[in-house]
Design a protein that fits this description.
Length: about 425
């Protein structure tokens, strides 16, 4: 979103206030031009790799139009549930281009994924043994835990020693025993260290752990390095240097495949990197409330629409797109949910009045996806901005949606409390 001549613009052509008039608020808006720019940037950073595959981690945003957009760019798909697999298939992905990497699910769900023909990534010794006993002819990938702490905070760091994700690198002998027992074929080795990775050298060390582990397996087809690249959330914010990362990992990978003797595919599975900066949440100000020490801007939205600030202490830049040249004042921006749903504390924002429209940046990843019906509120609409036009891609919910799966027992009698 860019400010020019006192107005904000999305994709240089779309006035977000016009979108508010058309679709109402609260509404999520996604700009495909930013998604494509980030996809192309990642591909360019690894241009020195002959076989590169970018798998969009659709848990970040699974609207089928977004999933299909990445398919059309040439992306594969990273999924963590059978439902995401089904969305990917409906969006037109070839099963072989879908990686299924769940955590803590039953063998029954693995069976469903196997029957759909997608690639299987296993991070549990017990499931590996069960899967091998049932489907030894179906190739699998092994998700390792590299025991390296990476990521923005403990909640989004998943490769450390106490993480529930991945098979410990110290359990590889057990993995090899299971593989040998069932005569299984391992086609790939995978890792994911965490989100909001700042230090490329830390990621490089984790990558070396993966490469060392991969030497234990013969006839691999791919190595999956996960993702977790940090994006900027405010002006001057630190972020992952993708170009430097490309140089480091490309050199490590090419040296490995030269030694390994086979031209493997290098896979990354970004989600936030591709869609975070492409998304905005637009919400209306209900009331300005003055306390003894604070000025609250209270919105027609809350943690039911945008949970990340409360869940992760995540920062989202908030701008007043209705009053672009008003004096800056200090506000706590809060929601309308019966919880302490604070979006931002002591934020300097152009003066806010009731009915002004505020825009939250970086609302493309893990924002709508974490929304809920808490307080029986409706989930918002979603709008796609693409090549100078805009499209409604999810309707705002109604009371019918709230009640759809509830079953009324009309003859239910009051309890006899006597």
């Amino acid at each position: 979103m860019r400010l020019e001549n006192g107005k904000y613009w999305i994709n240089d052509k779309i006035d977000p206030l016009d979108l508010v008039q058309t679709y109402g608020v609260p509404t999520y808006v996604y700009d495909t031009s930013i998604m494509k720019d980030h996809y192309d940037r990642l591909c360019s950073a690894f241009k020195g790799v002959r076989r590169l595959k970018i798998n969009y981690a659709c848990k970040a945003l699974t609207n089928i139009n977004i999933v299909r957009f990445f398919k059309n760019l040439g992306s594969g798909l990273d999924t963590v549930s059978i439902q995401e697999v089904l969305i990917g298939l409906k969006a037109g992905f070839d099963p072989h281009d879908i990686m299924y990497t769940p955590n803590g699910v039953s063998i029954e769900e693995f069976t469903k994924a196997k029957n759909l023909g997608v690639r299987i990534n296993i991070d549990n010794l017990e499931i590996l043994d069960q899967f091998g006993s049932l489907y030894s002819d179906h190739p699998v990938s092994i998700r390792i835990n590299p025991h390296i702490m990476a990521g923005g905070n403990a909640k989004i760091s998943v490769g450390h020693i106490d993480s529930k994700f991945g098979i410990s690198i110290h359990q590889m002998d057990e993995v090899l025993e299971i593989i040998q027992k069932h005569e299984m074929r391992v086609e790939g080795v995978h890792m994911h260290t965490g989100s909001d990775i700042l230090d490329v050298d830390v990621f490089s060390r984790a990558a070396q752990v993966l490469l060392n582990t991969a030497k234990k397996f013969k006839n691999l087809d791919f190595l999956d390095f996960g993702s977790g690249f940090k994006v900027p959330y405010k002006l001057g914010d630190v972020h992952t240097n993708i170009e430097y990362l490309g140089e480091k990992i490309t050199a490590q990978f090419n040296e490995f495949i030269k030694e390994y003797g086979k031209d493997l595919e290098l896979i990354f599975e970004p989600g936030k990197f591709l869609v975070s900066e492409a998304g905005y949440l637009l919400a209306r100000v209900n009331v300005i409330k003055q306390s003894m020490t604070k000025v609250f801007a209270q919105l027609d939205s809350g943690q039911n629409h945008l949970l990340r600030p409360m869940f992760y202490d995540a920062f989202h830049k908030i701008i007043n797109i209705s009053n672009t040249d008003g004096p800056k004042k200090i506000y706590d921006v809060v929601g309308y949910i019966c919880e302490t749903d604070t979006f931002g504390v002591n934020r300097e924002i152009n003066e806010i009045h009731p009915n002004d429209i505020l825009a939250f940046r970086n609302a493309g990843a893990y924002c709508f996806m974490m929304s809920s019906n808490y307080n029986s509120r409706f989930r918002p609409a979603e709008v796609l901005v693409h090549e100078g036009d805009h499209y409604l891609i999810r309707k705002r919910e109604t009371m019918d949606d709230i009640l759809r799966n509830q079953i009324e027992i009309k003859e239910l009698k009051p309890l006899n409390l006597a």
